[in-house]
């Protein structure tokens, strides 16, 4: 799989790029600012305690990208970091999508643009033809995003993920781009 590490993707104000080490301070600052909100639906925010933690994650993500096991992209909107979008796993032509967007960019279709571009990009490159979005049953924004992108609800997994001291159920959405 040969994709540019940095590519301008439509719409014109959206840029997706593989994270670089120099992005670690800005990513950490954004996580710090968004931590109370992120920890409600994601398991990892409390494990990111320093710029060094962000740097290690970036390095690990780049290794996995090189092995074609996952692909984590920094989302920039008009040059400002808006969040991350990823194929958390890439297995047997199926990509499991994850993302988070800072509160400043919610409601502006940034997540929709980023996820739809990744789907289009990897489909046109003939790398993937099946896509999955998993989200907490409490995360209505992500459920609406999946449905808006044409994903179909496949199943609900009870107690799929532990966040803090409670277990959350997940909706599992699927989209196939096969003929």
Automatic annotation (TrEMBL):
EC numbers: 2.3.1.-
Keywords noted in UniProt: Acyltransferase, Transferase
Signal peptide interval: none
Pfam families (UniProt xref): Acetyltransf_3 (PF13302)
PROSITE patterns, per database record: GNAT
Molecular functions (GO terms): acyltransferase activity, transferring groups other than amino-acyl groups
Residues in N-acetyltransferase domain copies: 14-173
Top-level division of the source organism's lineage: Bacteria
Enzyme class: transferase
Record keyword Cell cycle present: no
Protein name: Ribosomal-protein-serine acetyltransferase
């Amino acid at each position: 799989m040969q994709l540019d590490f940095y590519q301008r993707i439509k719409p014109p104000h959206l840029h997706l790029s593989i994270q670089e080490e120099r992005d670690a301070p800005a990513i950490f600052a954004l996580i710090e600012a968004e931590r109370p909100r992120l920890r409600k639906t994601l398991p990892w925010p409390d494990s990111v305690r320093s710029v060094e933690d962000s740097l290690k994650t970036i390095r690990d993500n780049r290794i996995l990208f090189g092995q074609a096991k996952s692909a984590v992209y920094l989302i920039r909107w008009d040059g400002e970091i808006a969040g991350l979008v990823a194929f958390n796993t890439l297995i047997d032509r199926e990509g499991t999508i994850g993302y988070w967007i800072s509160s400043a960019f919610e409601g502006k279709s940034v997540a929709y643009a980023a996820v739809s571009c990744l789907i289009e990009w990897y489909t046109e490159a003939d790398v993937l033809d099946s896509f999955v979005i998993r989200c907490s049953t409490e995360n209505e924004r992500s459920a609406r995003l999946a449905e808006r992108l044409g994903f179909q609800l496949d199943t609900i997994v009870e107690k799929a993920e532990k966040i803090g001291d409670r277990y959350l159920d997940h909706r599992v959405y699927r989209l196939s781009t096969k003929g």
